[in-house]
Amino acid sequence: MEILLSLSVGIGLSAACGFRIFVPFLIMSIASRYGHLELASGFEWISSTPALIGFASATVLEIAAYYLPLIDNLLDTVAAPSAVVAGVIATASQVADLDPWLAWSVAIVAGGGAAGVVQGLTTVVRQLSAMATAGFGNPLVSTAEAGGSVLMAMVAVVVPLLAVFGFLVLLYFTVKKVFFRHRPSEAA
């Protein structure tokens, strides 16, 4: 059961990395420092003071940059592979009780996959917003993404299974929208 919970924390944090890369690491650092989150061996650096300062600074810069027109779309290009890597690290920091080969395999597939799916979704939403509103709607999208990252990361730490459920619901509606949007009419 403990493996399931640690994997749930990792997947929830990874999904949060898909919204914003540094927010989940800031929340991990704070939660770990206060004893609310246990980090796997080798990942204790996440709760160090220099890491906390770095994550806080990077979070502020990342969130602010997404409010700058044109920069937000450019950041999505850079953020896609970075979010996947961050998702892998977030999940790997939680799966301590597994064989290292299995832990990294799970982190790559589940953590990287969760972050990649959410990042891909946010990129599509931002592009649609930019086309529909000439970019004027993107600050609203940025606010929703930052809020989603904070909420998902906090839920992952406090109620891990709920975070995974939230990710699965997001995944379900994304797959449904992408793959089943052009269903032929049965009336014809």
Number of helices: 7
Q: Proportion of β residues?
A: under 5%
Basic shape: globular
When the domains are counted, the total is: 1
Mean pLDDT over the residues? 90
Specify Rg, calculated over alpha carbons: 17 Å
Distance between the termini: 51 Å
What is the helical fraction, as a range of percent?
Answer: over 70%
Major β-sheet annotation: none
Order of helices and strands: HHHHHHH
By secondary-structure content and strand pairing, the structural class works out as: mainly alpha
What brief labels describe this structure?
0% strand, globular, mainly alpha, 188 residues
Provide an overview of this structure.
With 188 residues, this protein is mainly alpha-helical. It has one domain (2-177). Helix content is 77%, strand content 0%. It has seven helices and no strands. The protein has helices at 2-19, 22-33, 49-65, 71-92, 100-133, 138-158, 160-179.
List the topology elements.
Elements: H1 2-19, H2 22-33, H3 49-65, H4 71-92, H5 100-133, H6 138-158, H7 160-179
Helix pairs in contact: 1-2, 1-4, 1-5, 1-6, 1-7, 2-3, 2-6, 4-5, 5-6, 5-7, 6-7
Summarize the model shown.
The protein is mainly alpha-helical. The chain has seven helices and no strands. The mean pLDDT is about 90.
